[in-house]
Amino acid sequence: MGKRWSSVSPFIQKLRTAPPDWYYKAPKSPPPVDFLAPPTGPYFFYGTLVDPSMITEILGLDYEPELRPAYIVGYECKLWGQYPALLDAPDSIVEGAVYHVSTVEDGEKLAAYETRNYRTERCWINYMDKKEPLREIGSTFKFVGDRGDLSEGQFDLKVWLKRMGRTAALEKLEGKVKKTT
């Protein structure tokens, strides 16, 4: 009698007899990523969040954050009621301020404040204070609501603060403006 041929390939037979640690194993599984979670890092604000006291209240901070003056290119603002709505607009510039969001929880709080009519979008942030970095990728809140609800106009933080009865924030803002002029 001759040799019997197995229906199992020699490669599979070899794998079956290999020691358990012979296979490649990744050193560690990567942590799960929530792609819907708000990003952390620099956020460009152009409306009510340019007021540091608003950020303090929304995030429950025990200090008032320092914001960096900045601008983004390729966007414009229209008005959604009394609030600014950021839209795509080639060759346009929007000025505002940047705050560094350090946790996903803080990003979620800011997104809740902005409502479902806005979503985070990545953007190039250009700083105006001549400190490093001069430019970096960050996030901003772009309007995604009904464009039919928008009107032409400019958001004025001082007017908004006055309407909302936020006199302390208004006085602080006016004090900063007087110092810089």
UniProtKB/TrEMBL annotation:
InterPro entries: AIG2-like (IPR045038), AIG2-like_dom (IPR009288), GGCT-like (IPR013024), GGCT-like_sf (IPR036568). Residues 43-134 form the Gamma-glutamylcyclotransferase AIG2-like domain. It comes from the Eukaryota. Keywords: Transferase. It holds the Pfam family GGACT. One of its GO terms (molecular function) is transferase activity. The keyword Transport does not apply. Belongs to the gamma-glutamylcyclotransferase family. This is Putative gamma-glutamylcyclotransferase. PANTHER family: AIG2-LIKE PROTEIN D, GAMMA-GLUTAMYLCYCLOTRANSFERASE-RELATED.
